[in-house]
Amino acid sequence: MRTATIWLTGLSGAGKSTIANALAQELRLRGKSVEVLDGDVVRTNLSRGLGFSKEDRDTNILRIGFVCHLLTRNGAFAIGAAISPYREIREQVRRQIGDFVEVYVHCPLEVLLRRDVKGLYAKALRGEIPNFTGVSDPYEAPERPEVVVHTDQETLEESVGKVLAKLEELGYLERGSSASGTRTVAGSHGGALVQRELGADAARALLERASELQSVTLSPRQLSDARLIANGAFSPLQGFLQQEDYRAVVEQMRLADGRLWPLPVTLAVSDNAASALPPQGEVALRDTDGHVVGLMELAEKYGYEKEREAQLVYRTTDKAHPGVANLYSQGDVLLGGSIAMLPSNGSTDGAVGRYPSSPAQVREEIARRGWRTMVGFQTRNPVHRAHEYIQKCAMEMVDGLLLHPLVGETKSDDIPAEVRMRCYEALLGAYYPAQRALLAVFPAFMRYAGPREAVFHALVRKNYGCTHFIVGRDHAGVGRYYGPYDAHALLSSIPPADLGVTPVFYENAFYCRRCGAMATEKTCPHPEESRFSLSGTQVREILARGGILPAELTRPEVSKVLSVAGAK
What we know:
With 568 residues, this protein is an alpha/beta fold. The chain has 21 helices and 19 strands. It has helices spanning 16-29, 39-44, 54-73, 87-97, 109-115, 120-125, 156-169, 200-209, 220-230, 243-252, 271-275, 306-314, 322-329, 359-369, 385-395, 417-431, 450-463, 486-493, 496-499, 536-544, 556-567; strands at 5-9, 34-38, 77-81, 100-106, 147-150, 215-217, 239-240, 267-269, 281-286, 292-303, 333-341, 374-379, 400-405, 437-439, 468-471, 502-505, 509-512, 517-520, 531-532. The strands form 4 sheets. Strands 6, 7, 8, 9, 10 and 11 form a 6-stranded mixed sheet that branches. A 5-stranded parallel sheet has the order 2-3-1-4-5, sandwiched between helices. The protein has a 5-stranded parallel sheet with strand order 14-13-12-15-16, with helices on both faces. The chain is globular, with a radius of gyration of 25 Å.
């Protein structure tokens, strides 16, 4: 089949690069050869030295168009993602290439101002940046583009789906599942799944020279983060945050380039450990047993305000909050830079080791099952009847469920991961259709950051292939620090295109004796006394004596596992 140049045009920050990278990933999944020419990247390479006059802008666009033309006529899809503000020059490129699909990436200026992490629009409005497109320099919107996407209203999947559908309609792609706007596998956050694991040769070379490098010892939590960066679960992160990204994340829940990212992922060390390291350069990463596990390209060392991070991220400076307590106990210096990790076996150790734990493993299984849509469920507890109810409600709207328990460090009174995995096995084996539910593990630790962690969990599940994500009552909360539906409010406030995964909100579910079924406030008219509930203390007492929990609360197969474990 013929190939084409897909030309994304729109204002700065509208989402061109994000769509371009996600679209490229989808085309590669379909076996197509594709290259992305991002405007910012081109300016630092092919168009270095050009300014922002109309003549220089036109020259830049003509250069991008020329490369796109070469790629297209040689059988590759070319994706150009540049502001390209002037209509006449875009039409000139269209005439040159012929097979040309123009996509207008539309986003209102007021939304762009909210996304403006670097403050460029604000500076332009104050007159500090001349010739800024959309403010002090014109942008001529396309008159007859093949596709218009509205990134303030649509998810990334919906926008990409529109482009794919048009490519199918025009005969550039075989007709497939994406015509409806859904994807075969959800795009990762930032457009491409990060892979930072060393190949066999590079790993061997690192081990041979590790003794020559200064090193940093990673705590179990830091090692968990490093592994999740390396396998792509934390895409688009390439390493531990540098200062500019750190400040943007803490202050605005975004990386410095504007991409949504709600929680700081940092490598904290003591003053003494930091002073022993070079200002920049390669540093070996070791686990607590002294084994080399990876390499860091140290870019900078910087201080930070723990109380400010606590207040903005956790909404409290109270040391009784477990996330705040962990923050206060860590080192006073942050190390920023990209990392590369020695290969792991892709799964965790012990009783949970046989379950997929990396995004690549989960995505492979999704593809094998042929799912186009998947809803993710985050948990650090056994699944009780209320969880089961909301999971199955969500399953009605998608192809499959990813039951994705967090199996890293949690609070000391949480049920051990090995016990929880046996509970999940028992439940899925007896009450879920085998081909519509997938059990995998998320080897991360809980941060207990409430609403921000809910956004984090949604983005991570997007990287694992989820198109939807369940958000219930008090998601990732602890104690009195958050309202029961604060996570709903925060997720609802984020533009769908920035989030790229559809949150599915549920209120508190319960068993109603009068209804004789599970219900929520939205579906049950009966008073509080009709609802069955047990306190945590009552549950622990029943399990400690080897008792079976009531069927209204927990399935008997799950209760049996908990009872045996609790009585030991």
